[in-house]
Amino acid sequence: MVDTLARAGRALLGTRRRRHQPEAHFTGLGGDSLSALTFSNLLEEIFGVEVPVGVIISPANNIERLADYIETQGSAGAQRPTFTTVHGEGATSISASELTLDKFIDAQTLSSAKSLPHAGGEPNTVLLTGANGWLGRFLTLEWLERLAERGGKLITIVRGRDADEARARLEKVFDSGDPELLGRFRELAAEHLEVLPGDIGDRDLVWTPQSGSGWPTASI
């Protein structure tokens, strides 16, 4: 599988390297979001599996992990939502009304969600996704400020191979040339931030339960 992916990448990107290492990243081989779309189509022709562009260029995925993704897509319950599963095969006209929850969340989870207890009062722990995005960084800082007042904690999910890489990616968005902003983020993050490596597009956010703990550990 890895060798087939490597040869497909060489054919698409025109690289002369005879053999790619399993840890090589698509963008590190010269690919970008546009060529990733072509690569996605090529992989679907070869393996019959739709591989989203986001999976191909994810900083957490290399050739070996792409091979694992393709293999697991055939497993029951492992399917990740894609353009085709949401809008239909060969769709040329799409609508926002097609983005219904049942396309992304299984029926059992949706049904049981109605009976879940609702939290009351000011939260002491907040889970935030998209923290390193353009809007997410502002939300991250705002929540850190609010939670710091009562000793709370902000938990963020950021794509990365491990917690250190995920945290570095988040900190990078605050390193924009304003040392005061970066310093304030680091001050708040030291006591009130936990960064978990994960991907909201994958099943269970690519987490596996940790025995004896209320929090999962990342398993990417």
Q: Overview of this structure, please?
A:
- The structure is a single chain.
- The two termini are 18 Å apart.
- α1 crosses α2 and α7 (136-148) packs across α9.
- The protein folds into two domains: 2-87, Orthogonal Bundle (Non-ribosomal Peptide Synthetase Peptidyl Carrier Protein, Chain A); 125-218, no CATH class.
- The protein is mainly α.
- It contains nine helices and five strands; from the N terminus they run ααααααβαβααβββ.
- The protein is 41% helix and 9% strand.
What descriptors fit this protein?
220 residues; disordered C terminus; 2 domains; 41% helix; Non-ribosomal Peptide Synthetase Peptidyl Carrier Protein, Chain A; single chain; globular; two-stranded antiparallel ribbon
Rg from Cα: 20 Å
Number of domains: 2
Report the helical percentage.
Answer: 40-55%
Which class best fits the helix and strand makeup? Answer: mainly alpha
Termini Cα gap:
18 Å
Output mean pLDDT. 83
Tell me the fraction of residues in β-strands, as a range: 5-15%
At a glance:
The protein is mainly α and 220 residues long. It is 41% helix and 9% strand. Helix 1 packs across helix 2 and helix 7 packs across helix 9.
